[in-house]
Amino acid sequence: MTIERSSTMAARPPSGASGRAGPAKGTSPVPGGAAGRRRRRAVLLLFVAPALAVYVVMVIVPSLQSIQISMTDWDGVNPAYSYVGLRNYDEILNSGRFWNAVKNTLLLGLGSAVIINAISLGVALLLDRLRHWQGLFRTAVYLPALVSGFIAATIWKYILNFNFGVVNTTLQDLGLESWARDWLGDSGMVVWVLLFIICFTLGGNTTLIYLANLQSVPPSLIEAARIDGASGRQVFRYVIWPMLAGSVTVNLTLAVIGGWTIFDQVMVLTAGGPGFVSETMAFFIYKVGFGEYRAGYGSAAAVVLFIVVLVSTVVANRYMRSREIQA
After folding, report:
1. Rounded CA gap, 127 and 133, in Å?
2. Distance from C-alpha of 104 to C-alpha of 109, rounded to nearest angstrom
3. Which of 275, 253, 263, 271 is nearest to 209 (CA)?
4. Whose CA is closest to 266, among 206, 184, 209?
C-alpha cells in the first residue's frame, strides 16, 4: 500500500506542467503586459502635459528668446532692433559697475548662505533639546519666513531711517548720538546692513529643515556614543553631523541659489544706491533692462547670471553629495 501511494505521487505532474506553463520563478505577471504599460504612461503624460505646456510657454521659450535678444541692441519698447553679435557681452565683462554687482552678490549670497546655515543649525540644536514650549519657539523662529521679502524690507527701511527710525531714535535717547548713522546711505556700510537684514529674514525654513533632520537621528546612537565615553562635542561631530549631510546639502543649495538672485531687499531698501554701490546682479539686470531701456544689454547680463547660477549650483551640489556619500 505504501508502494502504490509513492508511485502515485511520483506520477503526478508538477504544478504548471499540465496544459500551460506558469510564470518564471522570481517574476510576477504584469496585468496587460506591454500594452498596459503604454496605456499607463499615456495617462500619466496626459496629467503632466498641461503643466508642462505652461512651463514651456512661460519659462523655456522666454529663456531661449533672451539669448537671441542678448545679441541685439533692442531697447525693450520699439519693435525695431539690429543684431550686434557679442558686443553686449564684451561690454558687460569690461564694466566696473557689473563687477561691483558681482562682488556684492558674492558677499550677500555666499555670506548669507554660510551665516544663515550656521545660525539655523545652532537654533535647531537648541530647539531639539527643549522639552517644554517647543511649538511656541518653533513658531517664533519660523514667523520671519512667513513675511514676504518686500514687506520685511519695507519694515526695516522705516526702522533704519536716519531721521525718525527706531534705531537712531533709541541711540539718541540713550545719549549715543555719535553712534547714529545713515544706515542705508553710507556707501561703506550699506552692503553689510543688507547682509544683516537678509540673514535675519531668511533663516526660518533652514532651521525647520535642520530640526526635522535632528529629530530623525536615532536616540540609540547618541546614547551608545555617550556610554562609550564620547563628549557632547564628539557626539555632534561623529554621530549627529554625518547624519545631517542630506539637510546640509539641501539648505546650502537653496541658499546659494537664493543668494545669487537677491532682489527684493535691494529694490526696497536702497534701489542700488547710493549710486551703484549696493547693486546685485539681479538688480543690475532689472535696472539696465527696464530702467535704462537696454533690453539687449540686460538680457546678456541675465544669460551670464544663468550660467553662473547653473555652474555654481552644480559644483556645490556635487561637492555636498560626495560629502554626503562619504558620511
Report:
1. 10
2. 8
3. 253
4. 184
CA dist., res. 207 & res. 220, Å (int):
24
Nearest-10 Cα torsion for 228, 233, 239, 241: 180
Helix (H, G, I), strand (E, B) or coil at 280: coil
Helical spans, DSSP H, in the chain: 2-11, 33-55, 61-69, 87-93, 96-129, 134-146, 149-159, 166-173, 190-201, 204-214, 219-227, 232-235, 241-243, 245-260, 264-269, 281-286, 295-326
| Beta bridge mates, 83 | 72
CA dist 269 and 278 (Å) reads 10
Answer for the pair 114, 202: CB distance below 8 angstroms, yes or no. no
- Long-range CB contacts (within 8 A, 24+) of 74-83: 74/295, 74/296, 75/293, 75/294, 75/295, 75/296, 76/289, 76/290, 76/293, 76/294, 76/295, 76/298, 77/293, 81/296
Residues with Cβ < 8 Å from 39, sequence gap 6 or more? 32
Burial of 244 from C-beta contacts in 10 A (0-12 / 13-18 / 19+): buried
Of 60, 80, 67, give the one whose Cα is nearest residue 298: 67
Q: Average of pLDDT values for 275-295?
A: 89
CB atoms within 10 A of CB 153: 21
CA end-to-end span of the chain: 68
pLDDT, tens only, 112-148: 888 888 888 888 888 888 877 877 888 888 887 788 8
User: 303 Cβ partners below 8 Å, 6+ apart?
Assistant: 66, 67, 70, 89
Whether this model's pTM surpasses 0.90? no
Identity of the amino acid at 273: G
Q: What is the mean pLDDT of residues 283-308?
A: 89
Cβ proximity of 117 and 255 under 8 Å: yes
CA atoms within 13 A on the CB side of 66: 18
CB-based contact 56:68 (threshold 8 Å) = no
